[in-house]
Design a protein that fits this description.
Strand order of the largest sheet of chain B: 5-4-6-7
Low-confidence stretches of chain A: 473-477
Strand content of chain A: 15-25%
Number of helices of chain A: 17
Number of domains of chain B: 3
Oligomer: heterodimer
Strand content of chain B: 5-15%
Mean pLDDT of chain A: 93
CATH architecture of the largest domain in chain B: 3-Layer(aba) Sandwich
Structural class of chain B: alpha/beta
Number of strands of chain B: 7
CATH class of the largest domain in chain B: Alpha Beta
Largest sheet of chain B: 4 strands, parallel
Number of helices of chain B: 19
Largest interface: A-B, 55 and 47 residues
Shape of chain B: globular
Distance between the termini of chain A: 23 Å
Distance between the termini of chain B: 69 Å
Radius of gyration of chain A: 22 Å
Chain lengths: ~475, ~400
């Protein structure tokens, strides 16, 4: 079938206002927040699960690839429509269907924006806590597809820890339900947990049941600034060793401080590291005690300055600053494009200091611009680099660097390629390094759900492993 | 590739220099276009996207399209122009963009370039620009009817020119009357010129730069004849045109520009206007984008409202830099009237949520769109221009 025929079939399902093959529109859908650019074949905006089922039935019958897409904020190319795929935009399935305080669940459609859901939940004193950097824009469907998390995963876990049940359309159009409203179940395989983080490779979510968490009554933000980066790492380790569990613990290096200062009226002192540490709870005194303990640890290590806030508005502003960091770093890369291949690794908490040093050393060897920041408390570190993606020589170096870094992270430090951004297309070339034993099993699982291999087939290395340079700008020119 | 600390610092300095550099063409913005992180922070607040819900009208989508044009990978087409002109010029994308790409600044230049290549503006907008050229107003109204509502004499010359603007003059005579009456009550000396014509805002945002500059030059000559040194505008759009566009387009624009809300606050503070308490009233205030984000006049209208005894200002959720657009700006109302009013309906609902009885604004363009939305929603909100609210409370 050619593109026009596919379009006409889909138009018959969703209506002419909700399907497009307009080249300008397709170009606008050719990006996510990764370095990859892939023009989809058709974009559709279904309004309900029945339409989704019809789309998948048609795609399956005609073996046309399908990619579900939330807000397109993914960092690894998992929401792009490779190989003239049908891209399903969930913008019209964005309803909060139910907030049930008695069951402590929220039932939502996949296109609900995370920030909007939390705004609604907070009215009732609850929240859905993972808090990714893209919180204000990303969708819950994208978070579930990706098993996203963020600054508060340290205490409250990742998305997977909050998903109780799913409604999903299988490639042939069959609608299934996994899990439910129960908070616990030992009954059968936990397919819900399999599907969370499956990056659209097994089917398409149409409804998500989340458990909701009481929002903390009191929080304290402690931002210690250290002369040396190593002191920041040491402080993080020592804080964990005290036995308290902060709701968040982030580390930013000197480059990040420089970039933050470009937008701050009250500048931070230029230093080696700043930590964003948050403690929370329902008892004000207990929160203050924990905050004091954090301060004492930092003072013992030789902190340069501590910014402290218990004011919720001020704390929110400080977190907004942290969330803006990934975007602010664009100022350092100019026309170069950020490479996300090893941007999102995690290692066992005890290994963080050494792993960070090792990757930094590799970055220096390959001449990569490196800013380091991330969720130091749970071992998840972001390291940013950028290249001119139009230069084959730089792409080659980036690939070498990414590969060596992945080896070090996985083999030497027992880490994972992706703590929260997903594998997507960006990291699929390295997945076998991490899942040598289990990748064949994962591929079999994929086949059970999706025998025709239509569901986001180019991600996670489950079928084909695309070369980065082939994907970049594929179809755009 | 920067790797040492010095190189990273230099990269930062280079960015600061680039940010400050004058940029007049899309090509001048090639770095910013590449810097768009596609994070969707702009999309979440873009009023047009929130209505249309297609990626190509989001600021980030437009950045990708324009980058492809700058790189020579695609050619600009009427389809591209339709997306670029799908914008209310509300400028919230600049506020939302942490990377300081400033998408709105880029879109402004893109409009000019597309218009320069005869791909823009959109046909309805072009028709309006033609009407402005022919009639000096967008409504095809005769010049002699412009101030039909004006019932009092004003001096022919004065230090201050009251510039009403086309929307107030032809569609909101009651606002014009209120402004004139307030100034008279305050004993403030001002003039109105019978030659007043369009400020050029519409062609300016259509990328018709030469036309806008011609209008500016013609207007400057008209203003000079009044002997005025100050211009007070009744409209946020005219205000931002005089304040921002004219100085950039012509050399000899030497007038001090004020919005009426600023003058009103000054008159109240100086005791020239005494306000009295009437029936207690709760109101909320809508920041016009062209007075707020474009010109950073946020406080004066609020201070005026707060100075009225018995009137309580209850703020909406999104205000000041974070304010939501009414949907009417940048020619969007002209080209996409239905979407435009639907955006206004959202703002009206936001106003209703405050529990206020009245919605106050300081721009007749916003008032037009909000008025349509109020009627369509059958809302109980009473709609005021700030001047009308103040007039109701003048002792």
């Amino acid at each position: 079938m050619d593109q026009k025929e596919i379009y006409e079939s889909l138009e018959a399902i969703v209506g002419e206002d909700d399907a497009t093959i307009d080249p300008v529109e397709l170009l606008a859908y050719a990006s996510d927040a990764s370095f990859l650019r892939v023009v989809p074949g058709v974009v559709v905006r279904p309004e309900n699960k029945e339409e989704v089922a019809e789309i998948l039935k048609f795609a399956n019958k005609n073996r046309i690839p399908v990619t579900p897409r939330g807000a397109g904020t993914s960092y690894a190319g998992q929401s792009l429509g490779y190989n003239n795929a049908i891209l399903i935009d969930f913008v019209k399935m964005d309803k909060i269907l139910e907030i049930n305080l008695k069951d402590r669940v929220a039932v939502v459609q996949p296109g609900v924006v995370y920030g909007e859901l939390n705004k609604e939940l907070r009215k009732y004193g609850y929240c859905f806590p993972p808090d990714p950097g893209s919180a204000i824009a990303c969708t819950v469907g994208g978070m579930v597809g990706n098993n996203a998390s963020g600054v508060r995963a340290l205490k409250y876990g990742a998305t997977i820890d909050h998903v109780l049940g799913l409604e999903m359309v299988l490639p042939g159009g069959k609608i299934i339900r996994t899990g439910g409203r129960v908070w616990k179940s030992s009954s059968g395989y936990n397919l819900t947990r399999l599907l969370v983080g499956s990056e659209g490779t097994l089917g398409v979510f149409t409804e998500i049941i989340l458990k909701i968490t009481p929002a903390p009554k009191y929080t304290a933000m402690i931002m210690p600034i250290f002369e040396k980066y190593d002191q920041g790492l040491e402080a993080a380790t020592e804080i964990i060793n005290t036995g308290i569990l902060p709701s968040a613990m982030e580390i930013l290096d000197d480059i990040c401080i420089m970039v933050l200062n470009s937008v701050l009226k009250e500048k931070l002192p230029q230093a080696g590291a700043v930590l964003f540490i948050e403690v929370d709870g329902s008892n004000e005194e207990a929160v203050k005690e924990e905050a004091d303990l954090v301060r004492k640890v930092c003072e013992k290590i030789g902190v340069k300055q501590i910014i402290y806030s218990t004011d919720s508005k001020r704390t929110e502003e400080l977190w907004r600053l942290r969330h803006s960091l990934a975007n602010l770093l664009a100022k350092l890369r100019g026309e170069n494009i950020a490479i996300n291949s090893i941007m999102d690794f995690a290692v066992p908490i005890s290994q963080v200091p050494e792993a960070v040093k090792a990757v930094k050393a590799l970055a220096a060897k390959y001449g990569r611009l490196m800013a380091t920041f991330g969720h130091i408390g749970d071992g998840n570190v972001h390291m940013g680099s950028a290249i001119n993606v139009e230069d084959p020589a730089q792409r080659e170096i980036a690939l070498k660097f990414s590969k060596e870094a992945a080896e070090v992270i996985i083999k030497k430090y027992g880490g994972t390629l992706s703590a929260e951004h997903g594998v997507g297309m960006a990291k699929s070339a390295f997945i076998n390094m991490e899942h040598e034993d289990t990748l064949p099993l994962m591929r079999k699982i994929k086949k059970v759900f999706d025998p025709q291999n239509i569901m986001n087939p180019m991600v996670m290395g489950l079928t084909e492993i695309p070369e980065h340079e082939y994907i970049y700008m594929a179809g755009v020119k | 590739m920067a790797v040492s600390d010095e190189e990273k610092k230099k990269a930062m300095e280079d960015w600061e220099k680039l940010k400050a550099a004058e940029k007049n063409t899309l090509n001048d913005y090639r770095t910013q276009l590449a810097m768009c992180n596609i994070c969707a922070f702009c999309r979440i607040r873009c009023p047009v996207y929130q209505q249309v819900k297609w990626e190509s009208v989001t600021p980030r989508g437009k950045m990708q399209i324009l980058r492809n044009i700058v790189k020579g990978w695609i050619k600009p087409t009427p389809q591209v122009a339709e997306r670029i002109f799908s914008c209310t010029t509300c400028q919230i994308c600049n506020v939302q963009c942490d990377a300081e790409v400033r998408p709105f600044d880029i879109l402004k230049v893109a409009r000019r370039e597309l218009t320069g290549q005869e791909l823009g503006p959109l046909s309805a907008e072009k028709k309006m620009d033609n009407r402005i050229v022919e009639y000096k107003n967008p409504y095809k109204e005769p010049q002699e009817d412009r101030f039909n509502w004006l019932e009092v004499e004003v001096p022919k010359t004065s230090d201050t020119l009251l510039y009403l603007g086309c929307v107030t003059a032809y569609r909101y005579g009651e606002t014009g009357k209120a402004i004139v009456e307030l100034l008279k009550k305050a004993g403030y000396n001002f003039t109105i010129t019978p030659d007043e014509g369009c400020c050029g805002m519409h062609p300016y945002w259509d990328g018709e730069i030469k036309l806008t500059a011609d209008i500016a030059r013609e207007n400057i000559e008209i203003f000079k004849k009044t002997g005025a040194k100050n211009i007070v505008t009744a409209c946020a759009g005219c205000y931002s045109t005089f304040k921002n566009a004219y100085p950039a387009l012509v050399d000899n624009f030497d007038f001090k520009v004020m919005h009426f809300s600023e003058l009103l606050l000054d008159l109240i503070k100086k005791g020239k206007l005494k306000l009295k308490k009437t029936t207690p009233m709760k109101v909320t205030y809508h920041d016009p984008c062209h007075l707020g984000r474009h010109a950073e006049v946020f406080d004066a209208p609020r201070e005026v409202i707060k100075s009225i005894p018995g009137v309580e200002l209850i703020e909406m959720e999104h205000i000041r830099q974070d304010s939501n657009c009414c949907g009417g700006g940048g020619g969007y109302f002209t080209a996409f009237p239905e979407n435009s009013v639907e955006i206004a309906e959202k703002r009206v609902r936001e106003a209703e949520e405050t529990g206020a009885e009245a919605l106050v604004t300081t721009c007749p363009l916003c008032k037009t769109n909000l008025d349509l939305a109020i009627k369509r929603l059958d809302s109980k909100l009473k709609l005021y221009d700030l001047s009308e609210l103040v007039l109701e409370h003048v002792a």
